Amino acid sequence: xxxxxxxxxxxxxxxxxxxxxxxxxxxxxxxxxxxxxxxxxxxxxxxxxxxxxxxxxxxxxxxxxxxxxxxxxxxxxxxxxxxxxxxxxxxxxxxxxxxxxxxxxxxxxxxxxxxxxxxxxxxxxxxxxxxxxxxxxxxxxxxxxxxxxxxxxxxxxxxxxxxxxxxxxxxxxxxxxxxxxxxxxxxxxxxxxxxxxxxxxxxxxxxxxxxxxxxxxxxxxxxxxxxxxxxxxxxxxxxxxxxxxxxxxxxxxxxxxxxxxxxxxxxxxxxxxxxxxxxxxxxxxxxxxxxxxxxxxxxxxxxxxxxxxxxxxxxxxxxxxxxxxxxxxxxxxxxxxxxxxxxxxxxxxxxxxxxxxxxxxxxxxxxxxxxxxxxxxxxxxxxxxxxxxxxxxxxxxxxxxxxxxxxxxxxxxxxxxxxxxxxxxxxxxxxxxxxxxxxxxxxxxxxxxxxxxxxxxxxxxxxxxxxxxxxxxxxxxxxxxxxxxxx
Length: 487
What we know:
Elements: H1 2-5, E1 14-17, H2 22-37, E2 42-45, H3 51-60, E3 65-69, H4 70-77, H5 85-94, E4 97-99, E5 109-114, H6 115-121, E6 137-140, H7 141-145, H8 150-157, E7 164-167, H9 169-178, E8 184-187, H10 192-195, E9 198-200, E10 213-218, H11 219-224, H12 227-233, H13 241-252, H14 258-270, H15 281-316, H16 318-333, H17 336-347, H18 351-375, H19 379-387, H20 392-422, H21 435-444, H22 447-475
Parallel strand pairs: 1-2, 6-7
Antiparallel strand pairs: 3-10, 4-10, 5-8, 5-9
C-alpha cells in the first residue's frame, strides 16, 4: 500500500532479496553480482524468510528483485487460480511485477526418507506411505500450510498419518538422520539428498508440478535501472539442475560462502570476475554488534519513555490501570515472529519493524514494575508526604518514584535482557544483529557460526545485567540500596 502512494524516484541502489534456504541465497548472490557488473549499485538481503515475506517486500518496494519458482507463484501466491505461463505473466504484470524465463532448472518438491528406513518398510512411492499410518512426518513450516504442500498432498494420496509437525527445512534433515521423523519434504536440488543417503519417493500420482527457477523484479526497475533487468536475463537457461545441486553442496557440505560460489559460476559462465571480499570474523562480529545495539537501545529507550508514565497512570487510576496492564499483557502473548511479520505491510523490512516489535515487547515488565513499585509504598509514607503539604506532582517526584526506583529498574533490566534475546529474530526480516550468524549457522549446520551470534548475545545480556545492578546501587535512596544495611 505504501508503494502505491509513494512518489516515483530514481533508485540509488538495487535491493535483491532471497529466502531462508541455501539455493535462494546463492541465486540472490548471483543476481547481486551480475547487477554490480552492470555498473549499478546492488545489495543483497539474504535469508529474509518465506515466500509471502519476500512477495510482500517486492510489492512494497523494500526489495527490487528476488529468485522464485513458477509453481510457488501459481499455487502459493495466487492460490491455484492462475494456470499457464502466459496468464501468470499477465497476472504478475497487473501487480507491477515482471518475470524472467526459466534459469534452466526445475527444483520441484519431493518427499524423502532415509534409504535404509524406506527399504525396511518397502516404501518406494508416496502411495506406499498410506500403508504405514504410524510414520512420523516433519515438513518445512511453509510446506505445512501452502496450497501445494501438505494439505493437498494428504488429500491427493489419502494419507492417514497424524504425527505431522512443522520444522525448519534444514533442521528436518537432522531429524531424519536421528530417527525423530520418518519422512520430510525435499527440494530436488538439495545437497543433503546425497549426503544423508535419502531416497526420493516416486510421485506416482503426479501431485507436484514443475517449479522452474525464475527472477521476479519490479516493473519500475526496468525504467529506473534498465541495465539491472538486462543483467538478470543473462542467466536465463544457463543453470542446469546438476550445476545448482553442485553449488548447493559446496555451500552446505564444503562450507564455501555463497558469494564465492556465485563468483565462480559467473566466471565460468560469462568470464565475469567479481570482486568478492570475505570479511574477517571479528569484522562480522563488530558489524552484528553495532546492528544489535541499535535495535536494543532504540526500542528500549522508547519503551522506558512510554512505559513509566503508563505505569504511573495505572497506579493512580484503578480502572485505567487494568486496561493498561491488560493491553500490554496481551501484546506480550503475541508470538515474536508473528509480530514482526505484522509490521512489514506498514514499515517494510529491516530495522524499523524490528524496533517497533521490540518496543512493544519491552512495555509489560516496565509498566508492571512501575505499577507495583508505586502501589507497594506504605500508606504511612504517603500520609507523611501529604502532611508536609507537598502537591501530588512533588510527592511523585520527590518521594514515590525514588522509593519505587529499585522495582522500576528491575523491570527495565528484565525488558533489556528479553530485548537482547528477541532481537535475534530481527535477522529474519533483514534487521541484522546477532541473529544473522545464528540463522546462517542453522541453515549451513555450522556450529561455529551459531556460536558467533549466540555467545556475544549472551555476553551482552550479562553486561547489561551488571550495568543495571550498578545503576540500582547508585540511583536508589541510600536506605534502599542493595547490600547496604538500613540504620
